[in-house]
Amino acid sequence: xxxxxxxxxxxxxxxxxxxxxxxxRCFSDGEAYDRExxxxxxxxxxxxxxxxxxxxxxxxxxVVGMIEPDGVGHVVALGVGPDHRRLGLGRRLxxxxxxxxxxRGVNTVRLEVRTSNIIAQRLYFDLGYHIVRRMPSYYxxxxxxxxxxxxxx
Length: 153
Known about the structure:
It contains 4 helices and 7 strands; from the N terminus they run βααβββαβαββ. By secondary structure, the protein is of the alpha+beta class.
């Protein structure tokens, strides 16, 4: 599948089940969210969420963002289905969520990434994020994470 034939759209609470199923496939390492957490994230008034749909209308990737009480945009989750990786979908979704944050007055975005996830780190570095600190045992399996920040233009 080519990224040019898939479409980025806003994600809403009607997408809860499909997003949850895709999240389970993307994060089979135990870091996937339960259905109620996905419901909360997609229903919250401060959420900024997008999905990529294939021509079949199936969701193949998603990003969940939340505007935190301090006004910082937080990329909570970015997931691309295993069969659709390396097509630029993560980059497209990050652009969409950053524009969504900007439209709501957000100037700074943060995210967390595993210290071992070099591919994701490379994407975030390419997009202008930088590491501000290492977070020991951040993930449930004990893996460390990096906190990354970007100032939006």
